[in-house]
Amino acid sequence: MVITHLSLTNFRNYGRLELAIPAGTTLLHGDNAQGKTNLLEAIYYLATSRSPYSDHDSQLINWEAEQADEPVVVGRITAQLTSQTGSHQLEMRLIQERGRNGRNGQKSFRREALVNRQKVRLMDLLGNLRVVLFLPEDVQLITGPPSSRRRYMDITLCQIDPIYCRTLSHYNKTLEQRNALLRQLAEGSGSRDVLPIFTEKLVTQGSQIFARRAEFLTNLARQAQHIHYEALTDGQETIRLNYLPRLTERENGGQQDKSDLETTGEWLQKHQGDMKAIAAQFSQSLTDVQLTDIQRGTTSIGPHRDDWELTINGRKLSSYGSRGQQRSAVLALKLAEINWMEKRTGEKPILLLDEVVAEFDEKRRALLLAYVQQSTQALLTATDPGMFPPDFMQQVTSMTVTKGQIHPDRLVEL
Ligand SMILES: Nc1ncnc2c1ncn2[C@@H]1O[C@H](COP(=O)(O)OP(=O)(O)OP(=O)(O)O)[C@@H](O)[C@H]1O
Ligand SMILES: [Mg+2]
User: Which of 265, 333, 354, 412 could form a disulfide with 243 if both were Cys (CB 3.0 to 4.6 A apart)?
Assistant: First the structure.
């Protein structure tokens, strides 16, 4: 899969950009604050409908355009894509509208997604473009909160599994409704008769999510373990990825024992194809905690509380791993993600690497660059292109990024 052309309008510091991108590896270099990261962010956003940096999508709109007195400001990312299913055009529009009172009016923000110039649901944009993104802050996947690990699973799975994505969206809606009812019940209002209706929906949708996450993590774990053991540590270290699903809750003074979660994770990975068993377990667990959930006014178990962890030689990486070990594990995980995406779709994803090559030692850098060179398309950023080996530089197309403009250093042959 390759992007042949990218257009940006009012996206971050790009007022207007028309960029032909060749297949193979492209190196975007330039001083700080010129737009290197912003370009990768644009492509990632088109693939996932999420920014890796900002939770407020309106911040993606160019601020000069946003501050102009126009009633409507549109940020736009458009990519021409060639994949095994043919040639497609994907577009995402970020639309900011001002109310009637001009500058002081209420602002409203919405998004529109288009495939081949036809408006589609946002969800249907996903899966057309598949990317794997490497960022220096990826190590937070190990050290950060469970929500960042759930986000990682969701974004990665949504790129290749439309059913997962749809089910997740339905699940979140059901969860919101169920929690609203639980809050009412906690306050003494609301009707308890309605609760089983929401619970049943939650069980059906939640079980699907558990099963798909279990399958995903099993595959990712297998690939990551292989890469880590064979290529990164010469058979010295065994990495394990444990799924910690919130499928059950055993009360231990309010705290759930980690080993309980691990056992549930193993059970789930064994039963990932048995939807009936998963649903029965989830349903039973929800019944077990129903009284406390009503008291607390919230749903305490379910995939919205899931987590996963990495261990090295049996020890938890977030607590015991050195910084370098954590980085290596994330590298193994990301390379596993590439392999897994290719296995699932029959096509290599586009690789986006933001300033990550400099972080690694020679061995890890060589492995990463080997993956880059085998990919059908990769975009790398660097402030200093001098850090890449000369034979690598000979094979890449290098471009300079300056103040929201990008120029190839040599004539690009497309
Ligand atoms: N909404 C926006 N509108 C206009 N400019 C923005 C917007 N958001 C961020 N910027 C600016 O875009 C510029 C380029 O940011 P970017 O992160 O792409 O730089 P970079 O080339 O990756 O630099 P570095 O080498 O420091 O990582 C920054 O000066 C940033 O402040
Ligand atoms: Mg940057």
Answer: 265
Residue in 8, 9, 13, 380 to alter for ligand 1 test, most ligand atoms within 8 A of Cβ: 13
| Centre of ligand 2 from the C-alpha of residue 354, in Å | 7
CA-proximal residue: ligand 1, atom 17 (nearest)? 37
Q: Give CA separation, 201 vs 55, 184, 261, 288, 294, in Å.
A: 28, 19, 23, 17, 17
pLDDT digits (tens, 9 = 90+) for 46-57: 999 999 987 799
Which ligand has an atom closest to residue 64 CA? Answer: 1
Residue ranges per domain, the chain? 2-130+347-408, 139-323
**Residue having the nearest C-alpha atom to atom 26 of ligand 1:** 32
- Nearest CA to 1 out of 406, 382, 392, 341 is that of 341
Give per-residue pLDDT as tens, 239-265.
999 999 999 876 554 555 667 777 889
| Backbone phi, psi, residue 119, to 5° | -65, 135
Pocket of ligand 1 (CB under 6 A): 12-13, 30, 32-38, 59, 61-63, 383, 401
Give 252's DSSP letter: B
Q: What is the share, in percent, of the chain residues with pLDDT greater than 70?
A: 96
| Residue of higher predicted confidence among 100 and 230 | 230
| Confidence band of 332 (pLDDT split at 50, 70, 90) | very high
Per-residue model confidence (pLDDT) at position 258: 64
The CA 28 to ligand 2 mean position distance, Å, reads 10
Residues in the chain: 414
> Model-level pTM?
0.94
Residue 176 neighbours by CB distance under 10 Å: 12
| Cα 137 to ligand 2 centre (Å) | 12
Q: Give the model's pLDDT for residue 104.
A: 65
The pLDDT of residue 414 is above 70: no
**Residue 200 token pair:** 């049943």
Give the residue from 320, 307, 327, 344 showing the smallest Cα distance to 152: 307
Q: Give the residue, by CA position, lying nearest to ligand 1 atom 24.
A: 32
- Rounded to an integer, the average pLDDT of 381-392 is 92
Which CATH fold would you assign to the domain 139-323?
Glutathione S-transferase Yfyf (Class Pi); Chain A, domain 2 (1.20.1050)
Token pair for residue 319? Answer: 């607590």
Give the CATH architecture of domain 2-130+347-408.
Answer: 3-Layer(aba) Sandwich (3.40)
